[in-house]
Write a structure and sequence with these properties.
- The chain is mostly helical and 329 residues long.
- It is built from 14 helices and three strands.
- The chain folds into three domains: 110 residues, no CATH class; 59 residues, no CATH class; 119 residues, no CATH class.
- A three-stranded mixed sheet has the order 2-1-3.
- Helix 1 runs antiparallel to helix 8, helix 4 crosses helix 5 and helix 9 crosses helix 11.
- The two termini are 31 Å apart.
């Protein structure tokens, strides 16, 4: 799936079912307090205030509407939200339909069942949806320059480049929260794919599960035995390919020492100055494969070991791995 499609799917997660929203709107339009609030006079005032702002914006950047104009729109949005639960009602540059159609959608004198299909798709599903997960934009970053990975945002203190703050409404159903959180995480990955430079300051942990880590260590330990089994012999015992066995050994090295195993560099060093441990190995003649003993003088930092153990994976224990059925390997 393309990055744009992933983001679009995430946005749709934060929307109501169209038919449910249509029914809810039709019921709302029959309420006496709503009909008393949304009068023809109020509609004209909103249209006039919006027209003034659009006319001012057309003159160029820096336009600031007068207080009365701003208050008219702010009060209208506030009443819709706090009294009637309607949000995202008026169109913006990125939110269609046009103002007239949006107001038709809200007008109690307009039959909800006659709303054009295009208006339904673009506005209806957002009217009542209250998100359970919202991205918190650091206070030092203007809202318009925020990450924009989650469809709903607010503001808060700073975060590191790899951190996010999300406000979670625990009143929502767990299924909704999990669905929204999964959608936001997918959107983060999509944004990283579309603009890698903006995310260059951090990398996502893609380490394997603990169960696979135990297999890497088993290959490492088998290569420590005397006599040492070859990689093909270990592969037969573990029912994997020789290539996978070598990769497991290299991954074990990376887990233990915190750096990728450089086979070419090792071969070059071995040819120039064989490790001291090789001189005492009865299998040194004709040996071309690495084993744990050749790294006896190499050390790992305590910090690396602490971080690496925390990242290795999920809840599989060593005993669980040892006692699992052969058919599940």
């Amino acid at each position: 799936m393309k990055h744009e499609e992933v983001i679009g799917k995430a946005i749709r997660t934060f929307q109501d079912d169209e038919e449910d929203a249509l029914l809810r709107l039709a019921i709302l339009k029959e309420r006496a307090d709503y009909r008393k609030f949304f009068t023809p006079e109020l509609r004209k005032a909103v249209e006039s205030a919006r027209a003034k702002i659009e006319k001012g914006n057309a003159k160029g950047p820096g336009y600031i509407p007068d207080e009365r104009t701003s208050d008219t729109l702010a009060d209208f949005r506030g009443e819709l939200l706090h009294r009637f639960g309607i949000r995202d009602a008026l169109p913006t540059r990125h939110n269609h339909p046009p103002l007239g159609q949006a107001l038709d959608l809200l007008d109690p004198r307009t039959d909800a069942g006659e709303i054009p299909e295009a208006v339904r798709r673009s506005a209806l599903t957002r009217l009542f949806y209250t998100p359970g997960v919202r991205e918190v934009i650091p206070a030092s970053v203007p809202a318009r320059r925020g990450r924009g990975e989650a469809p709903w945002r607010t503001s808060s203190p700073d975060c590191a480049p790899y951190e996010r703050l999300w406000k979670i409404d625990l009143r929502k159903k767990p299924a909704q929260l999990l669905r929204e959180l999964k959608a936001v995480l997918s959107a983060v990955d999509a944004h990283r794919g579309m603009d890698p430079g903006a995310y260059a300051a951090w990398k996502q942990d893609r380490s394997r599960k603990r169960e696979e880590a135990w297999q890497h260590l088993k290959v490492w330990r088998l290569r420590r035995q005397i006599p040492k089994p070859s990689f093909p012999e270990i592969a037969r015992g573990l029912h994997i390919t020789p290539a996978a066995t070598k990769k497991s050994f290299y991954r074990a090295y990376e887990m233990i020492y915190g750096e990728p195993f450089d086979l070419k560099a090792w071969e070059k060093d071995r040819a120039g100055k064989p490790p001291k441990t090789c001189s005492n190995c009865p299998q040194r003649e004709g040996c071309t494969e690495p084993c744990p003993e050749i790294f006896e003088e190499k050390k790992s930092t305590r910090e690396y070991l602490t971080e690496n153990i925390a990242k290795i994976g999920d809840s599989h224990s060593y005993n669980e791995w040892l006692t699992r059925e052969e058919g599940n390997e």
